[in-house]
Task: structure prediction
Amino acid sequence: MQYPTKLFKCLLFVAANEPDDFHSPKEHGATGIIVDLEDLIATQYKNDARKLCSNYFIKKTDNNFCKILRINSIKTHDGLEDILWLSKLQLKPDAVMLPKVESAAEVEVYNKLLPDLPLIALMESPKSLENATEIAAHPAIVALGLGGADLSLNMNINYPNWESMLWARGRVVQAATMWKKIALDLPYYLKLDDDSVLEVLEEAKRCKEMGFSGKLCIDLKHINPIMKIFTLTKEEINWARKVIIAFEQSHGNALLLDGKAIDKPIAENAKRILEDNGILE
Result:
């Protein structure tokens, strides 16, 4: 199962018991919302949170915004309650985010209980990373996401900065792209003040260069810098089109274009970039 990459550029977590905030991600330019029933909600409030967010998924939005629900792990009582509740919803979210996934067998259980729903698997433990390739291979999975806080805890890392998460980032990109799935980077945790915007911009740029298609987000201030990086500029679009046309005119032969070497992989990558952003059908 494949999903439009353009909808996953920036996904903001919002607590499921705060329905008044559900409009904020779209208003601030994010491509999607993750309504969170897991880490943002204490156990004693989860049942009320389910009721509060139910109506949100009944109302369909346009095709340029993605409504995602993060449920609790199926290995917990809360997760079983989430699945039972979700299975009864008349209209479902666009995708379901699965926390702490550690095997393809686990994904298959979710898939059996929630058939036909696109699934996003969060890599949050050493075992998740070890089995990332087989998890990504499951047909119901549309994306792999990196969970920074839990992964840091499980790997004895004090805090998820760039250096400490570098290997895990590479592993997620490798596993996701092997199966043509979307790779989502972890949220920026280090600062949530006004000074963090430039740091988010730099981190998002590095992630894009690594092969990530988007970034998870926990702060409204971080939406704009993330979208700035993951949204193609006119120059990037024009260059990709120029590469495609030039390679076609060269009848598949390598060429120099504005001083840059262009061959088949470069041309195919230009097509992928435009396709991922809904520019080239």
